[in-house]
Design brief:
17% strand; three-stranded parallel β-sheet; 2 domains; 11 helices; alpha/beta; binds cobalamin; seven-stranded mixed β-sheet; globular; Transcription Regulator spoIIAA; binds iron/sulfur cluster
Length: 291
């Protein structure tokens, strides 16, 4: 039987505020698109996937442990940005206590940059740096093959070695983002989010502001999906969620490619979605430069 995989989005760790209080503060919550992309690729390859997003779901320690016992994931992937690191470690320890043989994978921005510090925690088996879909697929195959190869041979991974960390071979970024399946949003309960309909149309940012991690995270490459692929996803969202009247481009900058931007607007304008609102982020210079 194929091994199961559990993907976790830790909540931001805040000693002072409860989940309910954060909700009252109009805390913005988006579905975890990165985990949904990874989960969808793994599902399409025959693995059973569960996603738990602690930024919108409340689970006591006991409930979480029960879930681990019943679902028995062989691999647990945790998405880690800086503010969620403490909680991510708490989750990793809980997993290790219940399922000592599971492979615990950290990915996302903090893990990508601070992999040495992350791997000082014995419960973390490995770190995936940058893009996660196919590195996670390789990890699932490694587990499925009864761990006959070495984790350190998988491109894009960092593991603990006898004398410090071992950085595995380089992994190429996905060349054609249109080749990725649309994220299966049914892996989470969309009704729990303050912003439900989000789309990722690009990866990276051409602006390269010196204080920002985006370029370094996406290996200095800016990749975009085609206007028609993005528009098809919007159409699919509308079909699946007829109540949708607004969607959000959840990424660094949508407007950097003028041609694609105009093509997308045309497609939208000439469709029955013309009344929908599209929210997006754009770097000001890129907006002016392209006009
Ligand atoms: C949309 C967005 C949000 C949304 C939703 C975040 C979410 N939970 O998905 C909202 C508005 C809620 C948000 C909030 C915050 N955000 Co924000 N956000 C973004 C943004 C613009 C896009 C994220 C996204 O959906 N990308 C698309 C998907 C496909 O990519 P991805 O999420 O990176 O996932 C890929 C890889 O990272 C990796 N990966 C991710 N997780 C895992 C896990 C495993 C196991 C593996 C193997 C791989 C892996 O594989 C995925 C697929 O390839 C990014 C910038 C960016 N361009 O990435 C900032 C970014 C992630 N946010 C950031 C920050 C700082 C925050 C906040 C802390 C802000 C604040 N002060 O409150 C909070 C933290 C909330 C949280 N716990 O995540 C920083 C993180 C920096 C850091 N060093 O940690 C980023 C990188 C922006 C930046 N350049 O500084 N954010
Ligand atoms: S425009 Fe935004 S996302 Fe792009 S490099 Fe600058 S700060 Fe980062």
């Amino acid at each position: 039987m194929n091994p199961n995989v559990l993907l976790l989005m830790p909540r931001e760790y805040d000693h002072c505020r409860t989940h309910e209080e954060l909700k009252d503060m109009w805390h913005i919550t988006f579905p975890p698109l990165g985990l949904l992309y990874i989960g969808t690729v793994l599902e399409r390859n025959g693995y059973r996937v569960r996603v738990i997003d602690f930024s919108v779901e409340n689970h006591s320690r006991q409930e979480f442990e029960e879930l681990l016992r019943s679902f028995q994931p062989a691999v647990v992937g945790i998405s880690v940005c800086a503010t969620a690191y403490c909680f991510a470690l708490i989750l990793a320890r809980a997993v290790k206590r219940v399922l000592s043989d599971s492979v615990i994978v950290f990915g996302g921005p903090l893990a990508t940059f601070c992999y040495k510090e992350v791997l000082e925690n014995q419960e973390v088996s490995c770190v995936v740096r940058s893009e996660g879909e196919y590195a996670m697929l390789d990890i699932m195959r490694y587990v499925e093959s009864n761990k006959t190869s070495a984790l350190s041979e998988i491109p894009g991974l960092v593991v603990r070695g006898l004398n410090g960390v071992v950085v595995g071979p380089h992994r190429e970024l996905i060349k054609d983002l249109d080749s990725l399946p649309y994220p299966n949003r049914n892996l989470v309960d969309l009704s729990l989010y303050s912003t439900q309909y989000t789309i990722s149309t690009s990866r990276g940012c051409p602006a390269k502001c010196i204080f920002c991690s985006s370029s370094a995270f996406w290996k200095n490459k800016y990749r975009i999906r085609s206007a028609s692929d993005v528009f098809s996803e919007v159409e699919l969202l509308k079909e699946q969620y007829p109540a949708m009247d607004r969607f959000v481009m959840a990424e660094d900058t949508f407007t950097a490619d003028y041609g694609r931007c105009m093509k997308f607007c045309e497609l939208l304008q000439n469709s029955n979605l013309a009344q929908s609102q599209a929210w997006l982020e754009a770097h000001f210079d890129l907006l002016i430069y392209t006009h």
